[in-house]
C-alpha cells in the first residue's frame, strides 16, 4: 500500500494518507531542482 507503479499517483499511497489523517496540519512544498519540504504538526496534551 505504500508503493504505486502509476506515475500520476506517485505522491499518493497509504503512508501519506495516514500522515494527513494523524497530523493536525500537513504542508508540502516542492520546487523542481530544489527539492521537497514537508512540515507536519501534531498537538499533544500533557496531563500531569
From TrEMBL:
Keywords: Transferase. It comes from the Bacteria. Its EC number is 2.7.11.1. It is an enzyme of class 2 (transferase). GO terms for molecular function: protein serine/threonine kinase activity. Coiled coil: none annotated. Transmembrane segments: none annotated. This is Anti-sigma F factor.
